[in-house]
Design goal:
Layout: H1 2-16, E1 31-36, E2 51-56, H2 58-68, H3 73-81, E3 87-88, E4 99-101, E5 107-112, H4 114-133, E6 142-149, E7 155-162, E8 173-177, H5 188-193, E9 198-200, H6 201-206, H7 215-234, E10 241-248, H8 270-273, H9 284-296, E11 329-332, E12 338-348, H10 356-368, H11 379-392
Parallel strand pairs: 8-9
Antiparallel strand pairs: 1-2, 2-6, 3-4, 4-5, 5-7, 6-7, 8-10, 10-12, 11-12
Helix pairs in contact: 1-3, 7-11
Bound molecules: adenosine-5'-triphosphate (ATP) and calcium ion (CA) (2 copies).
The site of one calcium ion (CA) has 4 residues, from loops.
Length: 406
């Protein structure tokens, strides 16, 4: 963690210090190397440990952050590198990725597999062009791509991205929806005990839920989802989901014992935060992670009493249609009048290309279940099904039942 943050601080501020210039083709494949050690040199200040850091396509990410995602450069650096900023989240998915929140809860660092890293580099230009042409895209916002290499050669790749959920609002329900219904059920008994769990497609269907959006927002959201899914089909990606966090304004933040100064960490986090970070195993990474966690944040498992959570939406999201109401999208009725729910939504986990491995998984899982309803299907089918499902779950869309396995 220390290495990641030190690397980002030096890498990002190095690039930031230069005068902005138009991007060139080389910028998309560029990588800047930094070597850190306890002595330091003219390029890098002295660090606590020896490690190497690589900043990928720094100029591209700088432009994405500043021109399209409208982040304030100083803010960004501060969020990521202020004193013990990152809370470890454990590894919520099956992939083994680790997630960390910035101290102000606006950013997420996700460690990614080498193949995902290579893939993001390969599609960076398409991603960049898409973001440029679709300022309201729902796709994960990537703010940076980096790598730390430890002295014994171990490499850790990671991205920095937006946290879809706001620091200042409780999320009362969370869904991770793919449009697949096989195995997409979080046990309701477990959900009853743990209201912060991330639920799945079948929970959504069985609970008879729908996205309550009036004609205006429904049309906008549908069109943006269509475009985003088109890109993902073109890039041959699959396995992504629409993450939906629901804030009920009637309930407000009252489930949460918080003081005026927001000393208590919002339980919104817990969808992922819940499993408080016991990193198991004796692999070098696991051991290094544990060590870094102890060092970077001794109060990590405590009351989170020193987190700087902003009380209100920080404003950088306000120019984005789907993030303009308190950082999210407020429900509306058929007359487009606002209702008491705010949705926080976005398309996440978009770096899985349909590789050989997935093809095998598809054939394998397809032996025991409907070949079209399982999660690994070819990208075109995946994208179409995803889009149809999202249309169906909006009010008036007919519901998601028709996707249910017979
Ligand atoms: P798998 O490949 O097994 O699905 P993963 O490690 O790739 O897992 P993701 O699917 O990216 O992980 O995310 C896992 C969970 O973490 C999501 O269901 C969601 O609860 C949370 N999460 C991921 N990205 C974000 C984000 N940008 N904002 C808020 N929460 C997020
Ligand atoms: Ca996922
Ligand atoms: Ca994944």
């Amino acid at each position: 963690m220390y290495n990641m943050l030190t690397g980002i601080r030096i890498g990002v501020s190095r690039c930031q210090a230069k005068i902005k210039r138009p991007l060139t083709d080389e910028d998309f494949t560029a990588r800047h190397k930094f070597s850190f050690d306890i002595v330091g040199n003219e390029l890098t200040p002295s660090a606590k440990y020896d490690f190497k850091f690589k900043d990928y396509a720094p100029w591209v990410f700088r432009e994405l952050r500043e021109d399209y995602f409208r982040l304030d450069p100083a803010d960004y650096l501060l969020s990521l590198t202020a004193k013990y900023i990152l809370s470890e989240l454990g590894s919520p998915g099956k992939s083994g990725s680790f997630f960390y929140f910035s101290r102000d809860y606006r950013f997420i660092i996700k460690t990614i597999h080498h193949t995902e890293h290579k893939f993001l580099r390969r599609i960076l230009k398409s991603y960049y062009t898409h973001v440029k042409e679709n300022p309201h895209t729902l796709l994960s916002r990537f703010y940076g791509l980096h790598r730390v290499k430890l002295p014994h050669g171990r490499k850790i790749h990671f991205v920095i991205m937006n946290n879809l959920f706001p620091p200042h609002k409780d999320i009362h329900e969370t869904y991770d929806l793919k449009g697949s219904t096989v195995g997409r059920l979080y046990p309701e008994e477990k959900a009853a005990k743990n209201p912060r769990a991330t639920l799945k497609d079948l929970n959504w269907i069985n609970r008879g839920k729908s996205l309550e959006l009036g004609p205006e927002k429904r049309a906008l959201l549908t069109e943006q989802l269509r475009r985003d899914a088109e890109l993902l089909k073109k890039l041959y990606v699959m396995d992504y989901s629409l993450l939906i966090g629901i804030h009920n304004m009637q309930r407000g933040n009252r489930d949460n014992v918080r003081s005026n100064t927001l000393k208590v960490f919002s339980p919104t986090v817990p969808a992922i935060r819940r499993k408080p970070t016991s990193i198991k195993g004796t692999s070098p990474e696991a051991m290094a992670m544990r060590r870094a966690m102890r060092e970077s944040d001794p109060k990590r498992l405590g009351a989170h009493d020193s987190l700087d959570l902003p009380e209100k939406d920080t404003g950088d999201r306000q120019q984005f249609i789907f993030y303009q109401d308190e950082g999210g999208l407020q429900a509306t009725d058929e007359a487009n009048s606002p209702q008491d729910t705010i949705y926080y939504l976005g398309v996440i986990d978009i770096l899985t290309p349909y590789t050989m491995l997935k093809r095998v998984e598809h054939l394998w899982k397809g032996c025991s279940a409907d070949r079209h309803k399982i999660s690994p299907v070819p990208p075109t089918e995946y994208g179409n099904r995803f889009f149809e499902f999202m249309k169906a779950i909006m009010r008036g869309g007919g519901g998601g039942e028709k996707f249910k396995a017979e």
